[in-house]
């Protein structure tokens, strides 16, 4: 019986570890995107999409706004880099948590249960935000496309159910007793 319980715990710890790797990969992807930000992107876009008199007006506007565009680009780079660093650190922490669960550490068990509750709250709030971004009528565009919103909602519901199952499994008497006895 103990072997069966440890199989479930092994699956959960590996899933959490893989989730940490995903966070690290997302952080690295954001670092690479931040490195490729350029203040000339807006200027190039306006200059390439206009011709004639519009081109002269676009050049005048972009020249006037150039310092502002550069400032906003630097701020965007800073924010993106900070988010990337946070995702990488969070991913490392989640990987350590997965290893702690695999090694049946009591502190890892406590932190996992608490973080799963926090993740459920975040999922519920996220569902509210995504649901609020739907268009009010068929003529409205909405903030995001309906297909993308449905995808996000599906992912959040799956994540919410997975977190609920992990909480259920880890707080069962038979599983919790493994962490308290070792």
Question: In words, what does this structure look like?
Answer:
With 182 residues, this protein is mainly α. It folds into two domains: 1-103; 104-182. Helix content is 85%, strand content 0%. The chain is built from six helices and no strands. Helix 1 runs antiparallel to helix 3 (53-102) and helix 3 (53-102) runs antiparallel to helix 4 (106-132). It is elongated and about 75 Å long. The chain starts with a helix and ends with a helix.
Write the layout of secondary structure elements.
Blueprint: H1 2-35, H2 40-48, H3 53-102, H4 106-132, H5 146-171, H6 173-181
Q: What overall form do the CA principal axes indicate?
A: elongated
- Helical content (DSSP H or I, runs of 4+): over 70%
Strand content: under 5%
How many domain modules? Answer: 2
Whole-number average pLDDT? 81
**DSSP helical segment count:** 6
User: Which stretches are low in confidence, meaning pLDDT under 50 for 5 or more residues running?
Assistant: none
Oligomer: single chain
* Major sheet description: none
Gist?
This protein is mostly helical and 182 residues long. It has two domains: 1-103; 104-182. Helix content is 85%, strand content 0%.
């Amino acid at each position: 019986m103990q072997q069966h319980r440890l199989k479930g715990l092994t699956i959960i710890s590996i899933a959490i570890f893989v989730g940490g790797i995903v966070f690290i990969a997302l952080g690295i992807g954001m670092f690479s995107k931040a490195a490729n930000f350029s203040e000339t992107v807006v200027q190039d876009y306006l200059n390439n999409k206009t011709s004639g008199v519009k081109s002269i007006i676009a050049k005048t506007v972009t020249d006037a706004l150039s310092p502002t565009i550069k400032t906003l680009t630097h701020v965007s780079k800073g924010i993106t880099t900070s988010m990337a660093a946070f995702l990488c650190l969070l991913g490392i922490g989640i990987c350590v948590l997965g290893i702690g669960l695999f090694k049946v550490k009591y502190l890892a068990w406590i932190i996992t249960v608490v973080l799963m509750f926090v993740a459920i709250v975040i999922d519920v709030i996220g569902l509210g935000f995504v649901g609020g971004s739907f268009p009010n009528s068929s003529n409205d565009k909405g903030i995001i496309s309906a297909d993308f919103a449905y995808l996000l909602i599906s992912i959040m519901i799956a994540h919410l159910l997975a977190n609920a199952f992990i909480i259920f499994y880890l707080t069962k008497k038979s599983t919790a007793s493994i962490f308290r006895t070792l």
